[in-house]
Design goal:
Layout lengths: L5 E8 L11 E7 L5 E6 L5 H16 L5 E4 L8 H9 L3 E4 L9 H21 L6 H12 L11 H6 L14 E5 L12 E9 L6 E7 L10 E4 L2 E4 L4 H20 L5 H11 L14 H7 L2 H14 L5 H11 L7 H5 L1
Parallel strand pairs: 1-4, 4-5
Antiparallel strand pairs: 1-2, 2-3, 6-7, 6-10, 7-8, 8-9
Helix pairs in contact: 3-4, 7-10
């Protein structure tokens, strides 16, 4: 079978979750011969015909072929009379599967399931909210087109374009990126980069897409998307996930600080913890000192700093931090008394 002789299509709803751009559905168009897939984000189902026209014009011009058949389920987006009239006008056979038989449109259904599974994994790994599923869908489809299928040695991209794809530019989705500020927006004094999260690949150029999460540049705002190729990516660091974990840790620390000491048995238990090795510290305190000192309130930090200066080097910082937090700053567990 030659390309464009049969196109599989389906719409998928992400349980009513809207993207940042207000999109509710994604539409897949899969070539049966090559398994090359196009994906579009839709606000409403009646936009399906508009995006199909865009798809038809692009692929027929690129491949110099004509679409022969379109196979879809019995969804309402493919049933309007205007959709049938468009297919009849261009000689396209609009095939529909039998009622209540999604297996008849199995290629599109499996593609939807594969994409949604990838989106769930990507969002969970990156720590991003569900509203970013649209960027994850576009990225997953972009990568799947460059991965060989089960029964074929060549990738869909290679069969569609006639050349092997380059994979050197692929990056880990959701990782930290230090993006250089464009020259017109740079200041002589101040930072030259902004902290971003990698969101995917630009569709009409070779740039990457980034979500700005921290910026000290007046012309680059937080929570905006920028496209750039001049960036350094740290593929083992996920700032949004670390941010959520630090916030949960801060809540747990606050609960520990507020909780009163109910009996002498509890204080004895804290003293027993102090006698353990630093490697066996309480799980709420086993983090880097930099992270801890950035989430604790300023009055508590000043109090801890003063008492650390008083005790000098008699105890390590990690042991002192554990001692202070587990003792809730009480005089019963004063490190000055403990050192004596």
């Amino acid at each position: 079978m030659a390309p464009l002789e049969l196109i599989h299509s389906d719409l998928c709803d992400m349980n009513g979750v809207l993207t940042k751009g207000g999109k509710r559905y994604f539409m897949t168009l899969i070539d049966d011969a090559t398994r090359f897939c196009y994906v579009y984000l839709l606000r409403t189902k009646d936009e399906a015909l508009d995006y199909f026209k865009i798809y038809k014009a692009e692929v027929e011009n690129q491949l110099e072929r004509k679409i022969k058949r379109l196979r879809s389920d019995r969804g309402g987006e493919y049933f309007p009379k205007i959709f049938d009239e468009f297919c009849e006008e261009h000689g396209i056979i609009n095939e529909r599967t039998p009622p209540y038989s999604p297996e008849s449109n199995g290629i599109a259904e499996r593609k939807n399931r594969t994409v949604t599974d990838l989106v769930n994994s990507m969002l969970d790994t990156a720590g991003l909210s569900k509203a970013w599923w649209g960027e994850a869908v576009l990225t997953s489809c972009h990568v799947l087109n460059k991965v060989p299928n089960k029964n074929q040695d060549q990738t869909p991209y290679e069969m569609w374009n006639g050349r092997k794809p380059s994979l050197s530019y692929l990056r880990t989705w959701g990782c930290l990126a230090k993006v250089n500020v464009p020259i017109p927006k740079k200041r002589k004094l101040g930072p030259k980069t902004v902290d971003c999260v990698f969101l995917g690949y630009a569709q009409r150029n070779i740039a990457y897409r980034f979500l700005v999460v921290k910026s000290e540049i007046p012309d680059v705002h937080v929570d905006t998307i920028m496209e750039s190729r001049d960036a350094t990516l740290f593929e083992n660091i996920f700032p949004m996930k670390d941010m959520h974990s630090n916030s949960r840790f801060s809540i747990e620390i606050t609960r520990q600080l507020v909780a009163p000491i109910e009996s002498s048995e509890q204080s004895d238990e804290h003293e027993h913890v102090l006698e353990k090795d630093d490697s066996e510290a309480h799980p709420l305190v086993t983090i880097s000192l930099c992270t801890l000192w950035t989430i604790l309130p300023r009055p508590l930090l000043r109090h801890m700093h003063l008492q650390m200066q008083m005790i000098g080097k008699k105890q390590s910082k990690v042991r002192w931090t554990q001692f202070f937090l587990m003792g809730h700053g009480s005089s019963l567990n004063d490190p000055m008394v403990a050192s004596q």
